[in-house]
F-box domain-containing protein
Amino acid sequence: MDSEEPTTMEKLPLEIVEHILKFLDAHDRMNCVLVCRKFLFALVRSLPLPKTIRLLYSGCPCHAETNSILLEDELIKNQITDSDAHKILSQCVAAPLTSLTLSNCDFQKVRPWTLALIAQLNKLQRVEFDSCRFSISESMLIRSIFAASFATLTTVEMKQCLLITDKLARSISRNCPKLETFSVSGCKSVSTFSVLAMIETALYREKPMLTVHVEDTMFCAQQLADYMSSPLFCSKNDWSLVPTHIVLGYEKPAVIAEHRAARCVLIYV
């Protein structure tokens, strides 16, 4: 009878090792990757493909968060270089990201064609910029970041961004049928016309309610009422404006624009 060599772990097919590891809990799996390189490869192969990237530009470790990229420059307070931006964005364009958040990032040294890489993220549902600085124009910002995802955007938040004017609201209101939240808080060049654009296009959106934040801007509730009662406002008899206060742990002033076709725009002022 021919003697057979004993089967060692190294000779086991990788698929069988993967199957064995499925029966272990997370703690035991982490211990197994220290046993040998084959166990490590088997565990890596069993992991789902990453759909999420969360980056803290300050040098902190990476964290996982579903379908989003969060880039923060909270600690170093320096301008992000074009090279750094290109490395980050070029690695993200192939991912099925639905959320893009930039917080306290200074992109004034980043070239326009580098920022244009964001346009390849064409399924974004949420875009949030907070206290970011850019070297490009508002029109180019709209084309580079928002235009490719017009059909899927539900939330647009641009806070404390001096670049933003009423042009953003006009573009978003006409092209984003899924929009549910629009915030331009702290954007000093934004006026009442931004809210008017959102009201005029209310019937074209899929959702019956839109929430708009215009705190710390040039928005004026009385000016909005004057515009909507003007003969130039084509559907003035269909809308009513109601000043109110929304309780969010505290009373927050707001204006509700209601349409007789069960459409509503909630405006935080």
